[in-house]
Amino acid sequence: MNGKYRKLLAAKIHRATVTAADVDYEGSVTIPPELLEAACIHPYESIHVWNTTRGTRLETYAIAGLKGSNDICANGAAAHLIRPGDKVILAAYTMMPEDDVQSHRPLLIFVNEANRVVRSGPEVPGPQRRNATKGY
To answer: Is beta strand 57-64 parallel, antiparallel or unpaired with respect to 107-111?
Structure first.
């Protein structure tokens, strides 16, 4: 072991649909506890939010919503960058020894329009996707 650590993607919830935005709340993104559990993201854990609708990115923390709910709510300042109906990717990172990097595989959770898990597993690199947009 060489003592060096790398920051790698630990998990992501892919293309969740934002259902609410509350600029007056203190901060965070509210996520259903079932999705947090599926992605092994803990309440109050730091998360990155990539808004695929608007192209914005931010870092905040996750809080658990109501069990059985499908609500994804941008709270506080995040509500200025994320609006209801937007598609977002919610990602958590981990630090790990460089010796473990080659064997690491992040936990990827894919959800439907109702923010319900439809599958987990590896993502397909962009150019290999059948419906990838060409010409950028």
So the answer is: unpaired
How far apart, in whole angstroms, are the C-alpha atoms of residue 13 and residue 8?
15
What would the DSSP string read from start to end of 104-118? Answer: ---EEEEE-TTS-EE
Per-residue pLDDT tens digits for 68-123: 999 999 999 999 999 999 999 999 999 999 999 999 999 999 999 999 999 998 77
Beta-bridge partners for 90: 13, 49
Q: Report how far residue 117's alpha carbon sits from residue 114's, in angstroms, rounded to the nearest whole number.
A: 9
Q: Is the pTM of this model over 0.85?
A: yes
Domains of the chain: 5-122 (2.40.40.20)
User: Among all chains, which residue has been given the structure tokens 């790398």?
Assistant: 6
Catalytic annotation, residues: 28, 61
